Amino acid sequence: MKMIKVQDAVGSVLSHDVTQIIPGEFKGRAFKKGHIIKEEDIEKLLSIGKDHVYVWEPEEGQLHENDAAIRLSNLVVGDGVATSEEIKEGKVDFFADRNGVLKIDKEKLFKLNSLGEIIVSTLHNNTPIRKGEKIGATRVIPLIIDENKIIEAEELIKEKIIRVDEIKTKRCAVITTGNEVYYGRIKDAFLPVIKQKLGYYGSEVIKQVILPDDKERITEEILKSVNEDKADMIICTGGMSVDPDDVTPTAIKDCGGELVTYGSPILPGAMFLLAYYNDIPILGVPSCAMYSKRTVLDLVLPRVLADERLTMEDIAEYGHGGLCLDCKVCTFPHCSFGK
Question: Has the keyword Thylakoid been applied to this entry (predicted)?
Answer without folding.
Answer: no
